[in-house]
Amino acid sequence: MMENVIELQHVYKAFKGFELKDLSISVKKGFVTGFIGGNGAGKSTTIKLIMNLLKPDSGTISIFGMDYKKNEKEIKQRIGFVFDSNIFYENITLAEMKKIIKPAYRKWDDTLFNQYIDMFELPLKKNLKTFSKGMKMKASLTIALSHHAELIIMDEPTSGLDPIIRSELLNILHNLMQNGERTILFSTHITTDLDRIADYITFIHNGQHIFTKEYYKIEEEFAIVKGGTNLLDRDTEQEFIGIHKTNHGFRALTANKQRTKNIFGDTVIIEKPTLEDIMLYTKKGEERC
Amino acid sequence: MQVIISNQSKEPIYRQIYAQIKKQILTNELKPGESLPSMRQLAKDLNISVITTKRAYEELENDGFIYSIVGKGSFVCEQNNEMILERKMKVIEEQLLSAIQNSKEVGIELEELKELLTLLYKEDT
Amino acid sequence: MLNLIRKDMILQKKTLPFMLLFLFVYLFVNVSTSWVAIVFCIVIIMNAFQTDETSSANLLLNSLPYTRKEIVSSKYIGALIFIFLTLLTIFIGNWMIHREIMQWEILLFITSIVMGLISFAFPFSYLFNSKYLLIGFGGVFVVYMVTLSFIPNLNDRVRELVQTVLSLDNSLFYLGIILSVGLLYVLSWILSIRIYSRKVF
């Protein structure tokens, strides 16, 4: 009975030199989904499709079970967004920015807004132009969180921020998730941020959906395998998504930890993979083909 | 309730949580009927994702250590000690059986096996 | 949608009063009122247009609960409000300084010219970018100034032409102007919505 807040079905979108191919992704209600993929994998494009900033060439996109053609305003009322770049007007203050955005939302909450302003120690009367990158992200987050959004979409919110601010952000996200009604989609290439917060990981590569899994399942299924190159032959290489060979041995990624264990037994070392490993070896595997 | 998790451990985090809560229930540190923190609260406190605590709670529930009431939270089950013991004994039996089979395959005698068992038992404590 | 127009007012808050004051002062320097009014209207309207032309502003507006139709429409309705404000300032200014009530024909003339220009400028800017438009306008202005130095009484001639047009005592003629400018404006409006809906940010 798990409800999907975002559902993309067979979405296709082509640009010059880039395409999203048959993308089907769903984001579950009440959880944090970490959205990963290298530069140019299609993360931002997918997020723009979800925000209706782009329209798909074919396929359907439904948010809260609704369709942008009929319910654009209704959907956007319930979304809070944070982009990696500053999207606020630069020559005004945060107080003025609030004045501009507030009337757009039915559920705008000034008390909540002021709480975040206090918590982040943001100046209301200073020009937004003078804000540091961290302050801009906090301002963006404040606006995104002040209208009781049910879905929070963040495109690379932590890029270029120091570890302290990133940690603060993750704490806030933990707090937001307490009532179980909120859903967060969080794209990033700093994958360590996801260790602490992501329930699901959605991985796309070259415009294609590779997988969406519970975070702990990744550890159960994937593994980094290390061993001597003499173990590799045409058959055993098939076991791996990507292999990195050196004169001293190999390192490889498997998507079937148990089977790999059965095949190689104690001849190899098997370790927990990081998300970065998965991204890296998926790319490597592709180059090999 | 104390839960300390290690990110370095080979054991998955949800298994660590499962094991620690289970131990506290079996040792009666967590009393029957006592409420556990909500899985979202625990996730926040441990700084891990909700799905991890959810999985740990689900397994605790499946194994009969806790029960959940929608909208109220999770509570420690009334423990039937005999049942637990019985369940445990069965597991031990199975494990010993497979150890015996393995021993037979390579021709280890009963005496030798007993010696090994004694040695390991003492070592662990 | 009214929020979007209000947003333009807030963003122009610093420049708008200054501009209107400047306009007021300009009236002392007895140049052609119509000419000044037209330039001011265009500058104010295009200034508001430009602030929303950056990709970040488009990202923001389209992520907020507004439709693209509303975003475009707010610019067209906002332009009419800016015209009204400018004309009001001129009207009051003229009355205070020169103690004369402006002819409604002149007001109509200014409005028509500005609406006509906007009808071309908006779709053009949505399609390309207003910076090319400004280059174009600048070019026309330079050409005009150069021509002025060759034909010294060009301004007078234009004024004469305008006067003849205005003195045409034919209400049907005015009605025709109102209708055709209105139609042009609406068509441009629809065209702009079409163009903007297909934009990629």
TrEMBL record, chain B:
SUPFAM superfamilies for the chain: Winged helix' DNA-binding domain
InterPro entries reported for this sequence: Tscrpt_reg_HTH_GntR (IPR000524), WH-like_DNA-bd_sf (IPR036388), WH_DNA-bd_sf (IPR036390)
Protein name as it appears in the record: GntR family transcriptional regulator
A family per Pfam: GntR
Organism: Ureibacillus thermosphaericus
HTH gntR-type domain mapped to chain residues: 11-79
Record bears the keyword Transcription: yes
CDD domains per record: WHTH_GntR
